[in-house]
Amino acid sequence: MARMKDHDTLQRFLFDGTDIRGEITSLTSSYRNILNLNNYPTPIALLFGEFLVAASLIGASLKQAGIVTVQATGNGPVTAIMAECTQHQGIRGIVRGNFENIDIDTLSGSPDIAELLGSATLAITIEPQKGERYQGIVEMVSSKLSDCLEHYFQQSAQLHTKIKLAVSPKSASGILIQQMPLTQSAEQADLHWQHLSTLMDTLKNSEQLQLSHNDQLYRLFHEDNVRTFESQHVSFFCSCSLERTERALVSLGSDELLETCKEQGLVIITCQFCDQEYRFDENSINAIFPPSDDLLH
Ligand SMILES: [Zn+2]
């Protein structure tokens, strides 16, 4: 009898006796909380779910404090879509575009990249809190995000990676397996890879959305010595703050801000990820710009 599915958790695992590791994640409230902030048509919400799952899976490989961003830009109804994940599995994201002409009835199965993003590029950015930012960019060569991600890892790191994503309007789930640097012969590693990725191909979308992580792993790999690690909670987290908003305002210059303040009484900045409002009056704007600035003009 299948146990209840996992909610908002990510689990790492590896296969003893091989150089292959993996992660499995399921988003429910975290996904719905983010969707509730926006009013995306269903096909957009589903594509967004895939991006959030991808961010969670890739974010799990962060070894230190930092943020992973998975984003795509295209020339279709969706012009930009991005999802971020911190090393503590805090996720947020946003979709930009013109969704008026999206036919919400044509959707069948997984979201279609070509239909929604047109011709698009995929960028993955890893931003450690300390150290250098890394970004890799590839063309989106398939209409499935999972294929595009596999292609990304092959191109950027020559790493065999297999990813399966499954989304519904209520939940989103994903599983990834990846080859690590080899400690075995290439021949042996190839055999392991073929075996495990063939098994993963048999996982159905409905199983991903309905089965617990343990049940999915058992169903796929019960003969393959899977070792699971402690699970991590995934939640909606926005990294905006008053301080960061103030820093962003500095680039606009005090003249423009004070002007707006005079016209409208207040400058209101709304976070595009979480709808949090930051309000600034004349005094608080003056406080952002240190007096020494005046001497330079
Ligand atoms: Zn925010």
Q: Can you offer a commentary on this structure?
A:
The strands form three sheets. Strands 1, 2, 8, 9, 10 and 11 form a six-stranded antiparallel β-sheet that branches. The chain has a six-stranded mixed β-sheet with strand order 7-6-3-4-5-12. Helices cover 36% and strands 29% of the residues. The chain is elongated. The longest helix is centred in the first third of the chain and has 18 residues, at 42-59. The protein has two domains: 9-236, Hsp33 domain (3-Layer(bab) Sandwich); 242-296, HSP33 redox switch-like (CBS domain Like), CATH 3.90.1280. The chain has 297 residues and is an alpha+beta fold. Helix 9 packs antiparallel against helix 10. A hairpin with a 6-residue loop joins strand 13 and strand 14. It has helices at residues 29-36, 42-59, 113-117, 145-157, 186-201, 205-210, 213-221, 242-250, 254-264, 282-288, 292-296; strands at residues 9-15, 20-27, 66-74, 78-86, 90-97, 120-128, 134-139, 161-167, 172-179, 226-228, 232-233, 235-236, 267-270, 277-280. It binds zinc ion (ZN). Zinc ion (ZN) binds at residues 238, 240, 271, 273-274, 276. Zinc ion binds at residues 238, 240, 271, 273-274, 276.
